[in-house]
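Lab notebook page, bench 4
Experiment: in silico fold of construct C2
Operator: M.H.
Input chain length: 668 residues
Purpose: comparison with the prior construct
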Amino acid sequence: MRTMKLLLPLMLIATCLRPALAGESAVIPLQGHLSRTQADRTAGEIERLAAANYRLLLLDLALDSVDDQAGLTLAKAVAAAPEALSIAVLVSRPAPGGAVAIVLRADQSFMLPAARLGPVSPSGLVRQRISAIAGERGIPLSTFRRLLDPQGLSAEDALELGLIQKVCVARAEVFTALAIRPAEAEELRPALPEALRPGAGSPTLEGPFEKVFLIPIDREIDTTLAASVERRVTEAIDAGADLILFEVDSPGGLVSSSMDIGDLIFDCKVKTAMLIFRGAYSGAALVSLAGNVIIMGEGGIIGDCQPIAIGPEGYQVLGEKIQSPLRALFRKYASRNGYPVALAEAMITQEMAVERVTFADGTILFLSPEEIEKREAEHGKSLARKTVVPAGKLFTIHAAEAYEYGFCDEPVKSREDAFERLGIDEGEVTRLGESWAEETSRFLLTIKILLFFGGITALYMELKVPGFGIPGSIALICFALFFSASAIAGISTGLEIVLFMLGVLLILLEIFVIPGFGVAGLGGFALLLVSLYMASEKYPFPTPGRMWGADIPLNWLMEFSVAGVLSIIAIVFVARYLPKTELGRRVILSPAGPAGSQGLTGSGSAITGILAEFVGRRGVAVTDLRPAGRIEVGDEPVDAVTEGSFVERGAAVRVLRAEGNRIVVEEA
């Protein structure tokens, strides 16, 4: 009994002196390059260890290089750790820049003899942040300036200046100083979060690549661009490409066209890489996630794919019916290519929040709050949660953040660096740009209202003029340009042209064969409208898996109405004033002369003399006069024109006068 009384205090003292027992201490080795993703994972591991009541963590820094921002991120996590978790740092290799911040923030710091501390960049935000940390630790300014020396500080100098606690000859000496046995310390290598792992079976980009093609996506996304990208991808595959690069710099555009390009890239049998040196916004973000890998320049930005439409009150966010299939595409692309699925969805849905969650088994996932409970059954209790995307904000990130969250590898400084990373000689890459026909097609489709206006007006004038003349040629050119542009843009399939020609034929039958204006005329006009509408929209009617709404035909009808109103104004002007001009007299009527003649020839006065015999006489309209047509005076057929009024076939007319090579009549 006496022996037990003596042993109990000794056991209590031993327990207090030993900072960590088996299962309560951990070591995290950080080797090679300290990246932002690695720093972020380690910060999450620190949160997990603190929540699990660990007492000691040793960060073993065996680094070749350090991303300064990563060092500051990890230093912040070390400083935020609760007092119950003691954090020590061992520096076994040079620890420059941001790594100095980690050493200064640790509770205890050790260095091997060959290691060096620093240097810190003499300018910039990193120097200011580390200077502030040194000030908080009570380190004199003169000592901090020593860290700016390009050679850094040796282990002995760092010890002498009080920046570390001990120089250890070997790693085992650190464990002795911390009063733990190596076998008792749990060695942790923070696993790559599941959200950042490549999807199962996803293609790799292991070279070498013999035939590489570059396809720029550098303008607003529309139907013409979608058709152009499809043509260029087909051309690259037919040429034997083993890698296709897509350089994306676009504000986005039509949702349906973005989905077309995304599916084309996603289903491509050739390996694909997306290069983003500037901005991939909205639909361009969707397109970018379809590629096997994303390579971003330091100035690259990606995100904000919320679907919107322009309404009477400006920009309006489209509803769940539109967002739901878009989210499904984002999940599909992100899952296959290993991008964080929840963060990808947050680019679309403003109401969606996303958290970074650390589970008991060490797994780190990006999840919406609703998904966390489901995953706890698989990975254990969630130990740490941090909001990455708050509800009410769209997820848009720059290159460094994209790297941190696993959308891309470390950002490159230039195009040359991007090609070097892929092991490609830029000079051997074949660039496939848009053709002149595609560029012309895009321009013509932007002025389709003018083409409609010109075509409708000229077609009406042609119906008023005997034979086929200048107005008919203009109408033919306008509609030919429109349908050609539509075909190049991948909208028109040929059916639209057939419907258009059938519509014109029905209208001609109504005018020249069938009396009045009835079923044939209305049917012909309806076919004209349908053909022009179908040739204007890639998805004119509801199509599974593609965006469609009543606003599509309504917007087109508004455009066509503008062209129709302009045409009516032009037709009224032509009917009233053009017949009175010399040009109008030449264009509108070219009489054939009395029956049996081969036309009137000779001087204007001679022709007028021949036609003068009809002045004052009465006749009958053989055709409708719109205002031109044919009449019969006695048994003589002759071409005539009114002064702008409409006269139906069969109506009685009276000849007013002869002007040049024509006669002018009015209804009797």
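Observations: The mean pLDDT is 80. The two ends are 142 Å apart (CA to CA).
Next step: discuss at group meeting.
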